[in-house]
Amino acid sequence: MKTYQTYLFDFDYTLADSSRGIVICFRNVLERHGFHQIDDHTIKRTIGKTLPESFSILTGITDTDILEAFRKEYVKEADQHMTVNTQLFPETGKVLHSLKNNGATIGIISTKYRYRILELVGKVFPEGFFNIIVGGEDVKTPKPSPEGLNIAIERLQTDKATTLYIGDSTVDAETARNAGVDFAGVLHGMTTREELAVYPHVSIADTLEELAE
């Protein structure tokens, strides 16, 4: 795989495993409203989508006011449960430090809120380690809209031809395609190699270490 100047990462299931915290938060909200039969696997398959999208998929509800109320309840749950139940993947620190040491620009583009990402990475990385973090509150249209990637590319004044977006889901792959940047898939999450391979990609790897080689 060629060397890029800028490496932009999804967060959940790409740099970190926050699935335990996510499941707890979803389950607490869902159980509160009478949705008792939704299993963990089904919840995990929605990771990477916006909270209203995920709640709609899980419950069949389409009323925007109800979905917004669920979203607000989830955020309150996440304030309590998310950080303590999120861990970076074992190779994340090594790979990111290696990229930085080699002069690369690195950032995060996620549907997760930026303040939550900062709270999580602040436990491991020094302040200012990431050149940019674009979270869900920073865009008008969430992934697979290219808005987040385009914001990062513009602010970093980098070239799309030398930018790689790394993610675990088909939403991430579609986002990269819509932005016109290369995509590399990592199989940390619930999306299979076959599902990712449908989309344009330069690599699909089991771990981030393989992508950095």
TrEMBL record:
It comes from the Bacteria. Its EC number is 3.1.3.18. GO terms for molecular function: phosphoglycolate phosphatase activity. Gene3D superfamilies: HAD superfamily/HAD-like, Putative phosphatase, domain 2. It catalyses: 2-phosphoglycolate + H2O = glycolate + phosphate. One of its GO terms (cellular component) is cytosol. Keywords: Hydrolase. GO terms for biological process: DNA repair. Pathway: Organic acid metabolism; glycolate biosynthesis; glycolate from 2-phosphoglycolate: step 1/1. Belongs to the HAD-like hydrolase superfamily. CbbY/CbbZ/Gph/YieH family. This is phosphoglycolate phosphatase.
